[in-house]
Amino acid sequence: MKNKKAPHIAVAIDCIVFGFDGTDLKLLLIQRGFNPELHKWSLMGGYVNPEESVDDASVRILHQLTGLQGVYLEQLHAFGAVQRDTTERTVSIAYFALIDIARYKQQLSADYHAEWFPIRDFPSLIFDHNEMVELAKKRLQYKAALHPVVFELLPQKFTLPQIQSMYDAVYEINFDKRNFSRKLLSTDLLIKLDEKDKLGSKKGAFYYTLNKDKYKENLYKIFSLIITPDNLQFL
Known about the structure:
This protein is α+β, with helices and mostly antiparallel strands and about 240 residues long. It is built from six helices and ten strands. The chain has helices spanning about 55-65, 130-145, 160-170, 175-185, 210-215, 220-225, and strands at about 10-20, 25-30, 40, 45, 70-80, 90-100, 115-120, 160, 190-195, 205-210.
């Protein structure tokens, strides 16, 4: 039996970049600079070079198109529908990134006109990019309950109102303020600092930082904090 020649299938990377500005969860998009779908909104994407791994390609592509580097980046899913790309048969490996918008504001490149959009109101995207975003949102909601990675969206020190705003934005619901703060503090996951944020009021709100050493042993406390009968469908 003769060996069959392997079919040519291009491998691409698409990056879903989530950012938090202290109030809203946002999505970073660029306008496509070539046909097909010229000038339409798109995720950051590009092809994998023959000499690099998909992980290396994701880091390179994100840096080339946005200027971002050193951010949290995680592989999400492979998208391989036959007609997903109108140019040629392409399998895309999607990654999602989490950043604090303020921390990386100066690093963001203007070369490709990257723009932030609220996650609840962003334009229609090319190909199957909307599907990628929806899957990434579900993964982020799962991560927010089980893993400290969601704190990548926050500055190194944050207030209780900031962390609640982040969870509200991730789950697209409003948690009860008093219960949320009480349950969160009961986990002993936060280290209270002496500093206060006084921008919102004269009294101010104390800053906290995450105690990463305790996160793993308190995993199910976070799980019970997030999962309630009202939002169980999110996970």
